[in-house]
Amino acid sequence: MEDQSVIFHRNMFRKTKNLVNRKISTGILLALAIGLVPQLSLAEEIVGRLSYHWSPKHTSAVYAEMFAEEVNKRAKGRLRIDTYPNKQLFGIREVLGPITAGSVELGAVIGIVGFPSVVKDFNIASFPGMW
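Now predict its structure.
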């Protein structure tokens, strides 16, 4: 006849083993689910917004549109660049902040105009008659 403590420990071992097996199974299922999430997101189209201040006929705007068209063509539905000319989203002086904050993904930034608002040392290029 088995001792009561042996029976107790055997039962506890079985319960612990079952609990561990369930946790491992749950962990494996969770890992598989997490592994599948990026695969699902790969199927979605990523949209990048390009904000610039030039009018549509400006040379830089023409090249920005060419860039967007080329990206859209080569990405084959995985990535799309939408352009916003004429300060539709942000102007030349305020576009840098929204880019760093993630409000817009791409923007036309001109260092002499945009950077001094972030780093005051860039103002040296703004001294009249200095260059």
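The chain has two domains: 1-43, 45-126.
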